[in-house]
Amino acid sequence: MDQISGKANNPGVLDGAWLDTLIRSLNSEQASPLGEKLPDFPPEELQRNTTGLSSEAAIRQAYAFYENVVDGANKVGLALNQETRALDFGFGWGRISRVFMEHLSARNIHGVDVDPSFVEITRGLFKSDNFQICTPFPPADYADASFDLVYAYSVFSHLSEVACQAWMQEFARILRPGGIVAFTTRHESFFDFCAWAKTQDASVSPYISALGQLFPDLGAVRAQYRKGQIVHGSSNGVGGGGPRDASFYGETWIPEQYARTQFGDSFEFVSGYFDGTKYDQACFVLKRKA
């Protein structure tokens, strides 16, 4: 069974005023504690189309993930500061990276994404060329031990097992020893959403219809998950469209047992998190071994 531990153990290290600043930045120019101007926001329709949320709700969800990553960093003694070099894997419109600007300088935040439109958008919002396009599989164009931190929100919740394994090997290469990778994946409760999708009329939405048909036997794949095996399903209907095609992109559940044991000898499992009142995915933090 999944052993995800729950809420962050030490959220008190975060300054609640930072969340207030992020929310104010929706409507007015704001600066980070390092004095850097916070990025602008894309149109709300684009926000909703990429995250399902927009405005304050989107920021609060990103901040909840940030809480978990900070907690994991604290557990391994990784201090996040303006010299910390971070990679945002699958950055979208930069929603997650702006939250990390509480401690990280924008000049040290980099990102890769398969979608060239996101590269253009996020470079404009952040006024930075640190955001690059990547292919669905590595390598990435970075030197060995380039980063202290890699974070990926709602990316490993979609990648095939082959892609997950390939990118974790790449993260082992580009992370320095003692650095961490934090990623989210579908939680077991998303199987219940798939079961609900099965009951819906095909006219509700193409995605819901495809999701309901993704697994003929939900009980079998849930049992697979509970045995510690990764579950991935894909079809044209649940693919992300454009560069996110069904050959590597769909819906993915990674159980904690898998995260603990199946990413080679390069990583040490640090912690797992799930609080469905804040965001609906499971989060895992792993440390790059020396």
From TrEMBL:
<protein>
    <submittedName>
        <fullName>Class I SAM-dependent methyltransferase</fullName>
    </submittedName>
</protein>
<dbReference type="Pfam" id="PF08241">
    <property type="entry name" value="Methyltransf_11"/>
</dbReference>
<dbReference type="GO" id="GO:0032259">
    <property type="term" value="P:methylation"/>
</dbReference>
<feature type="domain" description="Methyltransferase type 11">
    <location>
        <begin position="87"/>
        <end position="183"/>
    </location>
</feature>
<keyword id="KW-0808">Transferase</keyword>
<dbReference type="InterPro" id="IPR029063">
    <property type="entry name" value="SAM-dependent_MTases_sf"/>
</dbReference>
<keyword id="KW-0489">Methyltransferase</keyword>
<dbReference type="GO" id="GO:0008757">
    <property type="term" value="F:S-adenosylmethionine-dependent methyltransferase activity"/>
</dbReference>
<dbReference type="InterPro" id="IPR013216">
    <property type="entry name" value="Methyltransf_11"/>
</dbReference>
<dbReference type="InterPro" id="IPR050508">
    <property type="entry name" value="Methyltransf_Superfamily"/>
</dbReference>
